[in-house]
């Protein structure tokens, strides 16, 4: 019985993963390679042949490529500020983490209220006399303004996820290492590069993998700010599933998102390889 105890303790979590993750994944994978009851790659052919697929694919990669590095830099800065505080640390951490309590759609609507024609930004520009009439920032004529609005919304909404993970990681780094480097004349920037970042690698790995995967699944913020003018893979999955009523192509798109996420995870695991000694 003592030998079985660890497995019995893991049984509820294992059952949960099988029922709510593995089983649905298998259903989606099978759905993506079947068409009218027969095994086929027709779903992938329809997906790849659709005029929006290429735009959605590259928009998703572009968005992730812009948002994630900005969030990483901001999260490292915010985590360093929080960790270095001697008083008011909990308050500042709480303020930084406020966007975590806001849903994706709510964040998109907040920034829509800023960028729309009757929004805060136009009111500000008109009030200062910088423009004569409201500007249509989120119109099809301004694709880069739509991209900027989405980037700002995503950075504001999701940077705190990485920041919390990095704060926890910095809290595990012994202060003696930084103090020793300071004794040997290392500047604050040198201590951060030579001491903090290498020891923070496990937390960086976790934060980046989580954030990159979520970046490939962005949907509600894009729907609120860009609508159909800025297609992304998750948005196209929704359209095929519910608007076009084609579950097979929607399943194929879901498998593409999964493949991109796995590829990005493997790259990050390779780039941020954590030595075995650092894990123990």
Describe the structure.
With 280 residues, this protein is mainly alpha-helical. It has a domain at 60-243: Orthogonal Bundle (MetI-like fold). The chain is 75% helix and 1% strand. The protein contains 14 helices and two strands; from the N terminus they run αββααααααααααααα. A two-stranded antiparallel ribbon has the order 1-2. Strand 1 (34-35) and strand 2 (38-39) form a beta hairpin. Helix 2 crosses helix 13 and helix 3 packs antiparallel against helix 10 (201-216). The chain starts with a helix and ends with a helix.
Order of helices and strands: HEEHHHHHHHHHHHHH
What is the name of the CATH superfamily of the domain at 60-243? MetI-like
Name of the level-1 CATH class of the domain at 60-243: Mainly Alpha
What is the CATH architecture descriptor of the domain at 60-243? Orthogonal Bundle
CATH topology of the domain at 60-243: MetI-like fold
Count of runs of 4 or more consecutive helical residues: 14
Helical percentage: over 70%
Shape: flat
What fraction strand? under 5%
